[in-house]
Amino acid sequence: MANKQRSWWPVLVLWTSGICAQDAQVSQFYALPTYLNPAFVGTSLQTRFALGFRDQWPSIPGAFVTYNAAFDHYMSNLNSGVGVLLTHDRAGSGALRYTQVAAQYAYEIELKRKVFIRPALQVGMVQHAVDLSRLTFGDQLARGGDIATYEHVDGLNTKYGDVAAGALYFTPKMWLGISAHHLNAPNQSLLLNESRVPLRLGMHGGYRFALKSPIIKEHPESIVAAFNYRAQGKYDQLDLGAYYEREPFFAGLWYRGIPLFKSFSPGYANNDAIAALIGLMVKDMRIGYSYDLTISRLAGYSGGAHEVTLTIELADKRKKRSITKRRIVPCAKF
User: Fold this and answer.
1) What pTM was computed for the model?
2) N or C: which end of the chain has fewer CB within 10 A?
3) Domain hosting residue 275, numbered range
4) Residue 283: which region, alpha, beta or left (left: phi > 0; alpha: psi -120 to 50)?
5) pLDDT for 213-245, tens place per residue?
6) Phi then psi for 247, rounded to 5 degrees?
7) Which of 284, 290, 289 is nearest to 311 (CA)?
8) Is position 156 within any domain?
9) The total number of structural domains that make up the chain
10) Measured between alpha carbons, how far is 286 from 185 in angstroms, rounded to an integer?
11) Does the residue 201 lie in any domain?
């Protein structure tokens, strides 16, 4: 019966009025920084490839599975970063799908020595679709479930352009960014109606504390404190966390929720999850894993969320030292 629930759940989403869609969630923000804000494009030493996979609430019918792939490159002669971001999100046994391909550009301005600001723009194309052949309809349930439906099952899809912008300010020890996604409020309706994607606003930042030691170490240690706030439609959330870094090892702990300032409903505190992260760096490659422990009323039912990331950074050895000395973005690694 659980499989059948997963298969027809998306139909409820499509035909229920008043649904307000939200963008896919991630916990390892800085393993996929260009998904967070296009202003992070080109903040690696030179060239970066990133992959991300997230399985959210696997124990709940109709859970979400998200894939991200990103490429970005810093052009020092033009003070510019360019990149491409691919996002694919599936819900309800993969029947409801969202796919975006976006081009990103950021220009880097040095305000004074080692103090930078980066305005950025993102332009993408989105396909939003549902595969009706993967769903179970009422006539199938009435006749036993595992037989063909009498419904028309060609599927529904729509395509639209999507625009985002962002800005990032950073020094060798701190960073602060803002972003705005879906600036053009595109219509994502699959039923020839009007269903505008709500504007997503974000603010994120942090500070890096170097841990001093009387002994000179080959791999210095740092504590990175960070936050990430985002709001979309009538929903918002705040993530607060910290990382410990000592190459090749990284670890972090995040809390997600706004319990003191906002409630879901009377007597229902705004607590969502606690995310634990671990990571390992091997030469130019970083591998990260995180698990979200649900602490809302879904605790014990959701199965949490698993997220795996892979990042590869490449740089011309002749330029690596000069670039590192000139511009250091102190963000966490995951």
Assistant:
1) 0.85
2) N
3) 2-326
4) left
5) 666 566 778 999 999 999 998 888 999 999 999
6) -55, 135
7) 284
8) yes
9) 1
10) 35
11) yes
